[in-house]
Amino acid sequence: MIARLWKITLGGALASSAAALILSRIRTGSYGPGVNCTAHWLHGNDAAKIGKLDVSHSLAGIATNTSAVFFWAWFYNKALGRNPTVMRTVLLTAALGPASCVVDYKATPKRFTPGWELVFSRSDMALIYLSMVIGMFCGSLGKSLSYKKTEGNGA
């Protein structure tokens, strides 16, 4: 289940970061603001105004997003259990986006929100959350190596 957790995290982080980069380019003409805004906890709200990708803002933003995705991936992975049915996976995946959005923006102190509202509209933010959820779902597909070994041993 550890391997699946990392695949879920990687899928969600890559998908949400890609969505933020692409939407940022479309909305602002630059890739930077979409990932830099997530570093607002470290650099303040002006991080969202940095148009270029740089180590200080962009790396901090991507690392922050990946850490947040790991947080949600842990709950998602636990909720899936060892051998989730298709229906369980679909239902949990459908609940993941709205639940993470509500917690991120209603239960979390402003300084520790994703910061996407500094750059994006609500519909853009929904697309980023949807991308994260789809990436996490894709990461949950397949069997971990330990499961394959057990299956291959006739168990």
How large is the count of helical segments?
A: 7
Portion of residues in beta strands equals: under 5%
- Rg measurement, Å: 17 Å
Q: How much helix, percentage-wise, in residues?
A: over 70%
| DSSP E strands, number | 0
The total tally of domains equals 1
Query: Biggest β-sheet, characterized?
Result: none
Tell me the distance between the termini: 18 Å
Shape: elongated
Tags for this entry?
72% helix; 155 residues; 7 helices; mainly alpha
Characterize the structure shown.
The two termini are 18 Å apart. With 155 residues, the protein is an all-alpha fold. It is 72% helix and 0% strand. The model is unreliable at 144-152 (pLDDT under 50). Helix 1 packs across helix 4. It has helices spanning 2-28, 32-36, 40-43, 55-80, 86-107, 122-140, 145-152. It has one domain (2-152). It contains seven helices and no strands.
Task: Sum this structure up briefly.
The protein is mainly α. It is 72% helix and 0% strand.
Chart the SSEs and their pairings.
Blueprint: H1 2-28, H2 32-36, H3 40-43, H4 55-80, H5 86-107, H6 122-140, H7 145-152
Helix pairs in contact: 1-4, 1-6, 4-5, 5-6
